[in-house]
Amino acid sequence: MLTLKRVAKKFYQTRGDVPVVQNLSLSLKKGEVYGFLGPNGAGKTTTVKMVAGLLFADEGKITIGKYAAGSVEAQAVIGFMPENPQFYRHLKAVEVLHFVGELFGLDAPTITQRSEELLRQVGLEKSANEPVRTFSKGMHQRLGFAVALMNNPAILVLDEPLDGLDPIGRLDFKKLILKAKREGRTVFFSSHILSDVEELCDRVGIIIAGRLVAEDAPKKLVRGQAKTLEEYFVKLAKQHA
To answer: Domains (ranges, CATH) in the chain?
Structure first.
């Protein structure tokens, strides 16, 4: 469903080109929940943005199904939630979803139906007609998830979706991710909350300094190495420091 083959990305700085992602290869199956982990500066967000088509790889290839990442066809089947969702502050929550639905070319009845359904799913039905400028960070996250689902995508790409949520919000989001899996969607998300990743994911990949250093089911990675995924992650990060 999602494939990265030998992907590399550099950013220009005054001291020269700095490699951010190096020789990265991943392959996700349909209906799989995949956690993408790494310390700050490891290249996670850069990778997520390349998958979403917001950045382009310098080398290698990224495909969504049979389409190249960033193509119109790929954008039609992907739902993206950035780390800090931003919306036009004067719009109401329901207006944000209507706007997104129109961008995807959905007809008016479908937009109305999906907007109501998604706001209910993310727990914002009572705030549907409130302007976004009044929303808390957690409410922004919930609306961002609804936006990512508006086009009924085959794959969800989520950058730190659990960030800034209280325990109730985290529980709700975990339920939404598992619901997406039951519906047959592929979920690719980054997170620093490793206990949630361990609970949710079929597989995880750990990236350090732009390179994939470990990949497997959480239980298989931890077995014989550590008691928890968090403990294993810290050990691995120190080894590659």
So the answer is: 2-239 (3.40.50.300)
